[in-house]
């Protein structure tokens, strides 16, 4: 019989279910700004949202994706979008 894990335990170990790269136990921090592809068509497909992947860090990267996944789990949500300061649309209310 499986026991239900608490909130903190579930959150702490959740990235293991995402199978981090290179056998790491937790998701590493990716500091790359650009990402390379063997074929230019693969990059084009990523830019046109025809394939999953990363092209430029301000548009998304594995570290931000991991953060979005954890916030979604914490809030019991369906999807999370994270972005850097200055990337949000600001509209004054007056």
Average predicted local confidence, pLDDT: 81
Helix content: 25-40%
- Extended strand count: 0
Distance between the termini: 57 Å
| Elements, N to C (H/E) | HHH
Summing up helix and strand content along with how strands pair, one would put the structural category as mainly alpha
Q: What would you report as the Rg, rounded to the nearest angstrom?
A: 17 Å
**Distinct helical segment count:** 3
What does the main sheet amount to?
none
Shape: globular
Stretches with pLDDT under 50, minimum 5 residues: none
Keywords, please?
3 helices, 31% helix, mainly alpha, 94 residues, globular, single chain
Can you offer a commentary on this structure?
- The structure is a single chain.
- The chain has 94 residues and is mostly helical.
- The protein has helices at residues 7-13, 40-47, 62-75.
- The model has no long low-confidence stretch (mean pLDDT 81).
How is the topology of this model organized?
Elements: H1 7-13, H2 40-47, H3 62-75
Please outline what is shown here.
This protein is mainly alpha-helical and 94 residues long. It is 31% helix and 0% strand.
């Amino acid at each position: 019989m499986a026991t239900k894990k608490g909130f903190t335990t579930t959150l702490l170990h959740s990235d293991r279910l995402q199978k981090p790269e290179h056998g790491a136990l937790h998701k590493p921090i990716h500091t790359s700004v650009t990402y390379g592809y063997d074929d230019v068509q693969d990059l084009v497909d990523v830019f046109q949202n025809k394939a999953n992947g990363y092209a430029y860090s301000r548009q998304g990267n594995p570290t931000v994706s991991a953060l979005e996944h954890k916030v979604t789990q914490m809030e019991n949500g369906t999807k999370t979008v994270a972005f850097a300061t200055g990337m949000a649309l600001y509209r004054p209310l007056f």
